[in-house]
Design brief:
The chain is an alpha+beta fold. Among the domains are: about 140 residues, Elongation Factor Tu (Ef-tu), domain 3, CATH 2.40.30.260; about 90 residues, tRNA uridine 5-carboxymethylaminomethyl modification enzyme MnmG/GidA (Arc Repressor Mutant, subunit A, Orthogonal Bundle), CATH 1.10.10.1800; about 55 residues, Orthogonal Bundle (DNA polymerase, domain 1), CATH 1.10.150. The protein has 21 helices and 22 strands. Helix 1 packs parallel to helix 10, helix 2 packs parallel to helix 10 and helix 2 packs parallel to helix 12. The two termini are about 45 Å apart. The C terminus is likely disordered.
Length: about 625
Amino acid sequence: MAVEAGVFDVIVIGAGHAGCEAAHAAARLGARTALISPNLNLVASMSCNPAIGGIAKGHLVREIDALGGLQGAIADRTGIQFRLLNRRRGPAVQSPRTQSDRDRYRHEMKRALESVPDLHLIQGEVVEITVRGDRATGVVLHDERWYQAGAVVLTTGTFLNGIIHIGLRQIPAGRAGEPPSTALAENLRRLGYPCERLKTGTPPRIDGRTVDYSRLTVQKGDETPTFLSFQTSEAMLPQTCCHIVHTDDHVHRIIREHIHRSPLYSGQITGIGPRYCPSIEDKVVKFPDKDRHQLFVEPEGLDTHEIYLNGFSSSMPLDVQISMLHALPGFERAVIIRPAYAIEYDFVQPTELWPTLESRRIGGLFHAGQINGTSGYEEAAAQGLVAGINAARQIGGSEPFVVERSLGYLGILIRDLTDHGVDEPYRMFTSRAELRLLFRIDNADARLTPLGRRLGLVDDVRWEAYSCKYATLDFVADYVRTKHISRAKDPVADLPAHAQQAIGSGRTLAQLIKMPEIRFRELAPLLAHDGINATFEILDQVEHDFKYAGYIDLQRNDLKRLEKKLERRIPADFDYDRVPSLSREMRERLKRTRPDSLLAAEHTRGITPAALSALSVFMDLETPTATRDTSGEQV
């Protein structure tokens, strides 16, 4: 019999990246919050690669940070290598990535959570979400403790009915060495949630002392780091190198000879895996024309010899893994500390959720992270932040925080999930963003920090830093518009030769930095001569705004059109059967997904432009001012 153990405003189940952000946000917004995990020593564990950020993922982390989240600051604080990816491409797709010290990351995250007033960390396994009527009321733990709550955030990662596959061997687990959540998975089914299966995997961990690094290619970090948090000004830890190695025909031959022993190809694994991050055996089978695949040798931390072989995920039997590994150059004597494995787990289609991430089925129950079919620390943290904000706002009686596509990558993520659902593990890409030039990493704070301030997540220190930055940026932008460079008055001799040549007999600074070959940071002596002090980050952001001004203006017009569609709200009880020209399939799809705006309807899979036009005309005739009750705070 369950024994009452306490009462909270918000309970967060699971202390992974989604759970940490959810609990932090809810508590910061004044909700008495409990974060419950089976093992509090593994808070924010990096169960796969020890890195945060990457293409598009770095955009998400910057947006989380701008709103007042934790992930970027913790990643920077524990970073041992920083790299800006896509550096040779345009600013819209450049994205920071931080190699973090795995152990330090989770210790720093736990320390940050423990410093938040009224955030309580509780160790235990949740086996049941209690419900009264159609609303969540709390949770029961395996030891029969019952905690009551006004809202519950579910962030279970890969633990729901998790099964690890290593060859034909199957091990019930949420991740290596940790039992799965089977009772909670059964509880969700009893509550009516139709669970489906997904699959992901991880590479072997290697003893770095057994690797011949002389045969690998060194990959250094950036001399001038690009950080994930707007708060970070310098690296806190010693910096280290990664390395690169490639597979060859010998490795591929071993895989092909033993592919029948792979649970992925024997039919043992039924869950759908990620197309964009396949196992090494999947790469060899699906890309037979490629004679090699690039692998990254990444350190797990500063105080360990353990390394992570990024790109070598596998579910092959251990003896095959050893043969594959020893066929790699420099790994002939390598010792596996932990074998690679695949893991299958339950998830719930995110179309079960409102855009607030609250369940449509049970009020006060929010889902975030891999339970929604996503893959990646960054996608999980972003969802956790939104779920935590909305759980706290619901308890406090505030309007819900609805994240729209016009907000940035955070809105694109949430809307893609709740409007479309998933048929494979969802990963964020820059190609998913219609307005990439407006959603750059350098302006995430301009887009989101004022919103974070209004929500109550951005404190006075961060707000003061933000205000100072943009006061300086506005001053520098005005300087660029008005400054005319003269050889007689300005220190052009201190500039690079190609910049001197571009100046010629004289130019405005705005004309100069619009040139493709000119970087504004190269012109810093001009600013110093005029007594202007600005960071390279500010100079880069001003440069992007001027250099791409024409394209940015076009995208701003697109944003206005997008926002007009967003303003066209659709009532929750809208009768699609009355709309002429809609096929039966389209009606059923719209009734199932219940888009809350014309923009959401446009992004609903299978809805044609003609159908959208018919819907728009009918809305004009029937419900010109209709709005959904759950629209909340629009952005």
